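Async update (no meeting this week)

Hi team, since we skipped the sync, here's where things stand on the single-chain job. The sequence we agreed to prioritize is pasted below, unchanged from the tracker. I ran it this morning and attached the output directly underneath so nobody has to dig for it. Comments welcome in thread, and please keep replies under the output.
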Amino acid sequence: DAKTALVTMCIGGGQGLAAVIEKAEA
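Output:
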């Protein structure tokens, strides 16, 4: 449902953000 999609998007966005931060620190 919409809530699950939103949670999935937030988790995916969080992983993407972590990857960007990781790349910036590397």
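Quick observations from my side:
The chain has one domain: 1-26.
The mean pLDDT is 80.
Reply here if anything looks off.
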